[in-house]
Amino acid sequence: MSDSRTKDGTSHQARYKVGGMDCASCAAKIDTAARRIAGVEDVSVSVAAGTMTVSHDGSADLAAMEKKVSGLGYSLRALGKKGRAEGGVPSSVLPDLSPSGRENAPSHDHHEHGPGCGHDHHGHDHARHHGGGHDHEDHDHDHAEIEGLHGHDHAPMDGPWWKSKKGRLTIVVGLALVIAYGLGHLIPAYDSYIFTAAMLIGLVPIARRAIMAAFAGTPFSIEMLMTIAAVGAVVIDASEEAAAVVFLFLVGELLEGVAAGKARSSIQSLTALVPKTALLEEGGKTREVPAENLTVGSVILVRPGDRISADGIIVAGTSAIDEAPVTGESTPVSKSEGEQVFAGTINGDAALRIRVTAAAEDNTIARVVRLVEEAQEKKAPTERFIDRFSRYYTPGVVVVAALVAILPPLVVGADWSEWIYKGLAILLIGCPCALVISTPAAIAASLSSGARRGLLLKGGAVLETLGKLTAVAFDKTGTLTSGKPQVTDVIAFGRNADDVLRISAALETGSSHPLAMAILARAAEYELDIPAASAAKALGGKGVTAIVEGEEVFLGSPKAAVERVSLPMAHSRRITALNDEGKTVSVLVVGGVLAGAIAMRDEPRADAKAGLKLLSDAGVKTVMLTGDNARTAGAIGKDLGIEVCAELMPEDKSRIVGELQREGFVVGKVGDGINDAPALAAADIGIAMGGGTDVALETADAAVLHGRVSDIAAMIDLSKRTMRNIWQNITIALGLKAVFLVTTIIGVTGLWPAILADTGATVLVTINALRLLRR
Question: Exposure winner among 24, 123, 703, 740, fewest CB in 10 A?
């Protein structure tokens, strides 16, 4: 359990793992019971995640609440301050996602001029620049389970169904029913008593749960409807059907449990990707330790073929990393010293030494699981409507069933037994389980499916809104582009291209400037032999000089180079053309003679053009909002075919998002999560683009973990498929009930089909929702 104050210092939160909760009626009963405790302000229950979060004012008797929920037959495990239940998955309270709760950091894009949109400026030089409150006591204890109060298991159904409590009870009742049929034929005079006995084996635990739920504030539970129908059937001498109905009810619950377990394990299986042990380096020696004991700053050895056991930075070694288990990226990514790696990914062909940057409970996978679990507790608008509807729907069904049972005999003298039987059947048909689970089942499956593809969505409301987006505004640097410059052209003037690159790399050796890193990366790619440089000196805003191979060498902006050598018109035009393409050009002068030039640009992501086309094809308007200069932004925009608004301050980006909204667009904003904070907050949906960083995971409404532009379209598509699935589920749930309601009243169907209508609809709805787990 974790307790935390809100900004006004008056509210706290307690979070629990709930065992045995695998259907909508379970969640409704738990929610109602918890809300009846004085001091409890709000309750969020997630069937898919098996969790409950309780917001309270600090005076609530949490022990009494835990006892009341445990009394319903569910096990509770309080989550600790770090968000970890014993043997559970890390959990914590989500950050404030409101505009005021988002970081408002300045843009990292360059802004040399005032805001402009869709225009181009020429003539810019690309000069080189080197250089309070308290916590309440934790309730970390498990309450004793009250045997038989709940037909659901009190632990995840991770083994064969027949070994679970629910499975064993269903088997026993099934066997009792078979024996009752046999004995009923042998001694027909007592068949009513025999079937009643068989029925009671299953009904007693159901009835006890119904009574406990009624005392906890849920009188119209499915267990209560089931109990009334079964007892009523015995009273009107339909004990054989009563026994069969109880058995079918248990079978339906069993199927619900299996389906819910599958949905829950989809996201939980991510935790299995992280190895249990790691090879820790200490004092020049290596020893195996539990991965959960690794601390930030530790250095671990990862052998070829091993899974990486913690998030970290490579301190030695170069290897291809298979990130498919975490991001779905099929091609291994080559990573070397200084680059980040994630827990659960697979090291390829060389040993790596990695410095740990996150403890086990805070690694990428743990945070993904945590965020998805907590997102499942946030109800979507459709789900909230269905919940409200079901509060009136179930009592309404009870009233209708009572009227059907009583009015015809009283008004027209119809047979009491026949119409009571029909009334009992309507009770079973009217169970709201399938209707209530229709939305959360689909949303849980979608959130899990998205997470496994690196698409993090913070709740059902976000998932619903994504499908309504009609405009998406993108940041440039690090979103549409890779975020770091790359060498695009090596131009030979007085020396050959290899010499130009080799000597330039000598000047840049040891520099961490992004342009220097780009030159060094290209020289390493070509495996050039880089000479040593001496007497290196940075010239602020101009470039750098040094002695290389006995000659004075200068590398810097064209403007600064002209101060040293004359630049022929043909070369000058070539440099201007490169500038017009949005490229930064550095000129190399060796021994007072023009040697060559190197052009660099922050290139678009490999899938940026295709990703933007997917959005355009779906009828979504796209626009680039950047603080970079208009010429560079315009060149990138022209390559990608996207409208450009350049030289913007952070507040300008927010203003443009607002203008789009006033024009009637539903706007999504895609950025890195920090420099675009105002625009992310202003947009209907803020989407962070990043590789699993804290910002990418925790700042915006949604996050694309592995930075593919095409994943924005995938998110929107997932939202649309989910909403279609939800409406299919609602149609299945209400359609089956409507059909069987009519056939029951006209006498075509009875108790058996009635219970099949309920459990069948619930299972169909769940299976339909699980289709969303497929890619």
Answer: 123
Which two tokens mark 43? 């309750």
Which token pair is 123? 């003539």
Q: Which fold has domain 277-362?
A: 2.70.150
Of 437, 420, 433, 421, nearest to 393 (Cα)?
433
* Residue 111 reports pLDDT greater than 60: no
Q: How far apart are CA 395 and CA 393, in angstroms?
A: 6
Residue 708, token pair as written in the block: 């593919």
For tokens 């470039």, the residue is 543
Question: Between the CA atoms of 56, 60, 63 and 65, what dihedral angle is there, to the nearest 10 degrees?
Answer: -70
**CATH of span 482-603:** 3.40.1110.10
By residue count, the chain amounts to: 775
pLDDT mean over 8-31:
76
Unique residue bearing structure tokens 């989550």: 79
- Neighbouring C-alpha atoms within 13 Å toward the C-beta of 531: 16
pTM of the predicted protein model = 0.68
H helix runs in 483-607, sequence order? 497-508, 514-525, 558-562, 569-580
Q: Which residues have a Cβ under 8 Å from the Cβ of 576 and sit 6 or more positions away?
A: none
Report the candidate in 216, 113, 127, 741 with the shortest Cα–Cα distance to residue 427.
741
| Residue 86 tokens, joined | 């014993």
Give mean pLDDT, residues 561-586.
90
In the block, residue with structure tokens 């030039």: 597
Range 152-158 average pLDDT: 41
Q: Report residue 691's pLDDT band, with 50, 70 and 90 as the boundaries.
A: low
The tally of CA atoms less than 13 A away on the side-chain side of residue 450 is: 37
The catalytic position among 3, 475, 602, 676 is 475
Measured CA to CA in angstroms, residue 469 lies from 268, 330, 463, 479, 685 at distances of: 30, 28, 11, 18, 8
pLDDT at 3: 41
Instruction: State how far the Cα of 180 lies from the Cα of 298, in Å rounded to an integer.
Output: 66
- Which pLDDT does position 593 carry in this prediction? 92
> In the CATH hierarchy, which fold is given to the domain comprising 12-79?
Alpha-Beta Plaits (3.30.70)
Q: Is the pLDDT of residue 407 over 90?
A: yes
Assess whether pLDDT exceeds 90 at residue 432: no
pLDDT at 704: 86
Give the pLDDT of residue 353.
Answer: 94
What confidence tens digit (pLDDT) does each residue in 285-294 have?
899 999 989 9
- Nearest C-alpha neighbor of 14 from the set 91, 78, 65, 59: 78
DSSP state of 577: H
Q: Specify whether 628 is catalytic.
A: no
Rounded CA-CA distance 360/718 in Å is 30
Closest CA to 575 of 115, 37, 126: 126
The token pair at 119 is: 């225009």
At which residue do the structure tokens 């170069």 appear?
318
Phi, psi of 302 (to 5 degrees): -120, 115
10 falls in which pLDDT band (50, 70, 90)?
Answer: low
Q: What mean pLDDT value characterizes the chain?
A: 79
pLDDT digits (tens, 9 = 90+) for 51-69: 888 998 888 888 889 888 8
Distance of CA 542 to the CA centre of its chain: 46
AA identity, residue 693: T
Class of the CATH domain delimited by 452-480+605-717? alpha beta
Residue 300, strand partner residues: 280, 354
For the purposes of burial, counting CB atoms within 10 Å of the CB of 75, is it exposed (0-12), middle (13-18) or buried (19 or more)?
buried
Residues whose CB falls within 8 Å of the CB of residue 547, separated by 6 or more in sequence, listed in order? 533, 534, 535, 553
